[in-house]
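To whoever picks this up:

The parser on our side crashed when reading a file containing two proteins. I've narrowed it down to the boundary between the first structure block and the second sequence. Both blocks are reproduced below exactly, byte for byte. First block:
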Amino acid sequence: MPLAGAGDYRIAVVDPNRVVEQSPQYEAARDALQAEIEERERSLRGQQEQIAALQRQLEKDGPLMSESEIQRLQNDIRSRTRRLKYARDEFQEDFALRQNELRTKLGRQVQEVVVELAKENDIDLIISDGLVYSNPRIDISDLVIERLKEVFEKK
């Protein structure tokens, strides 16, 4: 057991970022999010291609079009461009929100597992962020990752 005694206290360290990033829960959620991102990116690319086609049409057919047709096409291009910008902004906000939700959810799971391991192994203090140095023998990150794998496999 990677623990160190400090007097009567048992101390361990955990790297929460490594634990989250190496957990199967994170990998599964990341893969699902990536699939969703790719689908939305395809949609945005399709909208961009439609705008480009309308711009090409305006350049090609503009000299043959009436002033009202040109105005209508320009308005359509501007409107689609605004909607595309809005959709991109919304996509970026959604992506950031989903990433934060994922990290928060996994952070809670990591916290629960760390507390379980601390109780099971009579650990008095577990330190995570802000470490300058820790001896690898007191790092319980691998134990936390293994427990998260067990939890993931039970689902």
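<<boundary where parser fails>>
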Amino acid sequence: MLKIAAYHKPTTLVEAAALLAEDGRTIIAGGTDLLVNPRYMVGVREVVDIRKLGLNYIRVENGWLHIGAGATMRSVAQQAALQRLANGILARGAAVCGSPNIRNMATLVGNIASALPSADTPPALLALNAEVVLIGTNGERVVPLDNFFVGPAQSVRERELISELRIPLADCDDFRGGFYKIGRTAEDISMVNAAATLKIQGGTITRARLVLGAVAPVPLRVTRAEEALAGQLA
């Protein structure tokens, strides 16, 4: 049983960041990892619930696709723009993340924040060149997802919350993509997953991003294969 001394429900990002700056506090949004995995609660005495911050958006603005920290896997899987983007690789990754009940609660940002090697959506996000927007008491900073993960269940976050993920549409709107997952069952965690995007001009591959999950401590960019594909006929 979880023993929580205090449960905070901030109404602004500034308030949430200030709360998270104190020791012994953690964020909850969907709660599907936090509430079932005791290791996430080691040393935690208080919880900061960010569900009242209005972060459940998915929107296109100024050439970027923004996905707020409250957007669930179900909403990502069903969002029309994401179903079209690079053959829907991110929507497809979200659609196979756990059971329907899990997808109704789990958030895309939570899948990134947990930094688990077997997570289903980081490969697709990396293949789409996504960025992470972090909020702390010192303000906002943006980190390329390529630089976010540092090890199993470890990231560059330092008492910060992820307010959103964003994808540069100008960079990848014309990408072709693919996503594949192998698990013990349809609802199980991945034994391996993979995502790829290709930019093709005049029948030739001009750029490739290939990412594997669950095969290394962090999602793995297969850069040698990317380089080998560049210049090949599609």
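After patching the parser it read the second block fine. Residues 53-229 form a domain with the Uridine Diphospho-n-acetylenolpyruvylglucosamine Reductase; domain 3 fold (CATH 3.30.465.10). The chain has a mean pLDDT of 93.
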